[in-house]
Amino acid sequence: MLNNKKLGGIKTMPFILANEICDRFASSGFHSNMITYLTQELNMPLVQASNTLTNFGGTASFTPLIGALIADSFAGRFWAITVGSIIYELGLVSITLSAVLPSLRPPPCPTQQNCQEASTFQLWILYISLLLTSLGTGGIRPCVVTFAADQFGSDKVITGRSKKWNFFNWYYFSIGLATLTALTVVVYVQENVGWGWGLGIPTIAMIVSIIAFVMGSPLYKKIEPGGSPLIRLAQVIVAAFKKRKETAPENPKLLYQNKELDAAISLHGRLVHTDQYKWLDKAAVVTESESVSSNPPNLWRLVTVHRVEELKTIIRMLPIWAAGILLVTSSSHLHSFVIQQARTMDRHLSKSFEIPPASLSIFGILTTLSGLVLYERLFVPLARRFTGQPSGVTCLQRMGIGFVINIVATIVSSFIEIKRKSVAAHHNLLDDPKAIVLISVFWLVPQFCLHGIAEVFMSVGHLEFLYDQSPESMRSTAAALYWTAISMGNYIGTLLVSLVHKYTGENSNWLPDRNLNRGKLEYYYWLVSGIQVLNLIYYIICAYLYTYKPIEEVKEEEEDGEFNGKKISEKGVELARNETA
């Protein structure tokens, strides 16, 4: 535990955000145009390339759960970030070497017909590189945002607007700025200079991110890990099962409490008893054969109310968390398909300059960046007048708005694809996969902007929800749940695309390997729109039934060493914000 009040605070942000900005610049420059590298340089078919990226994207979103458990159990967030960054760097070095050395890629195929695909050895080099970056991501993603938020201390609200609430918005703003730079500079280099420099620049940026993060080490507030959260959750389940025949007391104050035992995992307040899932309360029932004087007791037979409530909190969060899975499923392959659409469209800004297809994402990033500023400066003050919430809307309401906007964006995408193919048919270009259809690539901009607005609401709200509502000793694990939802969504998305590709026939395949003009991409967009509508209905039901975590916050009075306790019930952090507004 930390007693040094001088550690942490705003002075650590330049180092942490410099690390995250360089890391996001590297990862965006590496991943954003990888579909082009696989299809144009390694000559992989479109569906195989898209599935490869989605599968490794799913792996990269699953490893954060492992990294978070390691960080929360024994390693701590600082070392998880440092080691993860080094492993990620090894992956970038490997993929850069494969782009530089001709023996590690197949011969060029400018016509994209009867191409020699990458050999097994060349594919293994690619897979090892992607696997290393996925493993490195496991240490970085779940820990950076929670490590940075830890620098501000308690999640108790200092002013009408939470410092952390502001932090989550500006955290996304910073990584959005880094992504924007990568999508303009790095993608341009990849398309016009070469893949050696195009992948080398992200590799150098990752080295800078590691140096920046380690340099700030003396200033960081490093919260000691509180032991494996999975073991604590398992102890509650086992203890409740062993006492399944016991009767829980009607007065929850008779359940087992131990402030000293819970001190390391409740620095900013203990969770208080709730009436949900009361069968778990049996884990905290003190029987006649048990002695509470032993410190600690056998935690596989008797646990504290705080530990029981940790499990209840996770159980309450899971339905909301699960709603993000199908959202990711619906959008997991959209980026790859849109890049292929853009490659067939008129991308000229002038007679001599063309926009690289992957750089179209800058419109989504610009919308997200401007949206974050407008959200805080315009939307929140306006919404506050109607809701009374210091943050304008709750994180659950914010996520719901994002779900709706995402559905609209997907429907718009389908109509734009219909328009693109109608122009191709008008000029008899449907059978030429390399032909440039006489329609401006800027027709794709509205869907990018809508997805950017959805990101402002959905992604930031989802991350804020997981951080605020999770037990404080499990926040890295909770952040990992965000990425685990992305992982599961990517895997299901791969299954969906594979099934669509397999069962829609050879003559009128929705997602053809080479000629998108003869596909039915708009049908795929309608399919995922329907999935998102069903998911929205599920989410609304879960959000309506959700109960915010109750917490008893404790703050230390430095003058006399006494402690003042304050119970915040039912609305948890949300009501805490109201009370201090």
Automatic annotation (TrEMBL):
Membrane topology designation: Multi-pass membrane protein
Domain of life (superkingdom): Eukaryota
GO cellular component: membrane
UniProt entry tagged with the keyword Transmembrane helix: yes
GO MF term (any one): transmembrane transporter activity
Localization in the cell: Membrane
Pfam families: PTR2
InterPro entries: MFS_trans_sf, POT_fam
Regions crossing the membrane: 53-71, 78-104, 124-149, 170-189, 195-215, 317-338, 358-375, 396-416, 436-458, 479-503, 523-546
Key words of the record: Membrane, Transmembrane, Transmembrane helix
Keyword Iron: no
Leader sequence segment: none
Family statement drawn from the similarity comment of this UniProt entry: Belongs to the major facilitator superfamily. Proton-dependent oligopeptide transporter (POT/PTR) (TC 2.A.17) family.
Protein name in UniProt: Major facilitator superfamily (MFS) profile domain-containing protein
Biological source species: Gossypium darwinii
Lineage: Eukaryota, Viridiplantae, Streptophyta, Embryophyta, Tracheophyta
